[in-house]
Design a protein that fits this description.
Layout: H1 9-24, H2 34-56, H3 64-89, H4 92-97, H5 99-118, H6 129-144, H7 151-165, H8 173-182, H9 188-205, H10 210-239, H11 241-245, H12 252-255, E1 274-276, E2 282-284, H13 285-293, E3 312-313, H14 315-327, H15 332-349, H16 351-354, H17 357-376, H18 379-392, H19 397-405, H20 408-415, H21 421-434, H22 438-446, H23 449-459, H24 463-476, H25 480-488, H26 492-502, H27 505-518, H28 524-530, H29 533-541, H30 549-559, H31 563-570, H32 575-585, H33 588-602, H34 607-615, H35 619-629, H36 632-651
Antiparallel strand pairs: 1-2, 1-3
Helix pairs in contact: 1-2, 1-3, 2-6, 3-5, 3-36, 5-6, 7-8, 9-10, 13-15, 17-18, 17-19, 18-21, 20-21, 21-24, 23-24, 24-27, 26-27, 27-30, 28-31, 29-30, 30-33, 32-33, 32-35, 33-36, 34-36, 35-36
Amino acid sequence: MGSSIFLQSNSLLESLIHLSNEVSSIEKLPSIQVRNVSTMLRRIKVLTSLFEEIQESNNPMLPPSSVLCLSELFSVIRRVKSTMEGCKNGSSLWGLIQTERLSNQFHVFVKEIARALDILPLSLLTVTVDIKEQIELLHRQAKRVELYVDPQEIQTRDVLLTLMASEKTMFDVETVKHVFNSVGLKTVLDYEEEMSKLEDEVHKQAGTGGLIVVSNINNLISLVSYAKSMVFNEESEENDVRQVSGSVSKNTSVSFNVPDEFRCPISLDLMKDPVIVASGHTYDRSSIAQWINTGHYTCPKSGQRLIHMALIPNYALKSLLHQWCQENNIPLTECSSNAESEKKMCEKVVDHISATKVAIDSVKRTAEFVVGKLAMGSVDIQRQAAYELRLLAKTGMDNRRIIAEAGAIPFLVTLLSSNDPKTQENAVTALLNLSIFDNNKVLIMAAGAIKNIVDVLESGKTMEARENAAAAIFSLSMIDDFKVAIGAHSQAIPALVGLLREGTTTGKRDAAMALCNLALYNANKPKTVAAGAVPLLIELLMDDKAGITDDALGVLALLLSCPQGLEAIKKSRPLVPLLIDLLRFGSAKGKENSIMLLLGLCKDGGEEVARRLLINPRSIPSLQSLATDGSPKARRKAEALLRLLNRCCSQSHNPVGL
């Protein structure tokens, strides 16, 4: 029986006691979710007493169901700890906005505690009557507990959302102070720490939260920055009016009634170097350069996609700014020097800004000349011209933009049908390089390139041309709408699967990455399965020379979510032991996808897969290791799979034989 227990009872109890004491010893409660946190702490303290008494009883062999219960409680308390630390150490304002989600999370934790206690055989444990009564009471309360969302937090959250949506110049200082005080923001240091935490949250959400979430957090940062200046500047004025009137505040947008047209829509500060973007809106150079440099290609104010990334100085507004600064006794030298230094900084981080006008003009003349040869030249001249564009588009976003503006894309698309192998290869590679610039993706698709690219992928004159066609499809499919358009082409997915079978290591990787992108759109998943991708991908997992394990796992994990994919994956006998090995030796991403596949295979009638996992001596230790030390996603999936296997084991009449 002992061989079926996932964690030894002694080490499990020690870990539980240590973890519970860590949670119970939290000194300062977070300023949000106060009631949910405090009641959860009381429950964990009661459970800690139970764990300590079980440990003191020195029972050499606990009942299997009690070990299962303790394993479940260990998983729950670990997640409780993570959530509490997030509430305490994370952004209070972001937590306030997420109050309903956090409240629901605590409610789920309590329900999981109740389900774990359902299988706890209290009558078989050596504990005092007092502890038994406390645990029974805790169990009853946990089973009937209802979701609690603090109405005061909801009210404060709504006021905060109103502040975020309103014009900053219309703020009521007392309202701002009340909202911020309610989440523990009272001093200048508190405000600065909150902005730092919000910036950390931006980085955390950048990969998963989506543009709207990141935009909301950036809005919060702007709000806190503005509120800090407004609240503490007002307090300073009340304390010493003469000091304020005798000096110019560093934050001129707060110390003076700055007209809205002089404020940057991003930072809300007085603009120092106003520039116009492609949408026609004006921003401060440093703010919009930072926006573009972080991967955004839309206008922050209108949401319109920018057709080019040039920043054009707004000389008229800059002149009015200087005039206003003179009228309000704001030193122009400071404003100008700051603008120059920030401009130089931007020139270092945004490549199209850093390119000199001479260099841009040179590239433009070269591109126009070469495109002319594409249009009018002989076969040999066209081959050479396509090669020159291929090289020119290889580096620099400016080069890619200028080549497209010179009209190269339609001619390159036409050359994909060339009978000359080198011309075709150069044309498809040039399009691949051009597609790295997002706006060119739209132009390439608008030129009707997808049919010709798929033709090259399927039956190109050279293997390099075929592989670069696959890479071009991967690049184009980065845009969601193009996943649909590419998948709708009847030969696109089968041609990628064909390259997966026939290509070099690089070609197979490009094909797998393209399939992974396309499979993010649900309608493409059955097409990928029908094209025979599943057995081929599993075969590549076993091929050390192929070197595309992570990419193959990524595609399989996506195909698992469609019925055809699940059925095809289930047919593979070698897959489960292979995935178990990858849990131990795979990359971080490979481990995540391996767990996802195993979890999907065990669900919905996957008892046979679960049994094979339980039989394999390496599976449970590997899952336990990932549940403790893996990435956040791997930990969640490993814990879910361990719980599923726990239930499978407990339902068996003879767990020893598994």
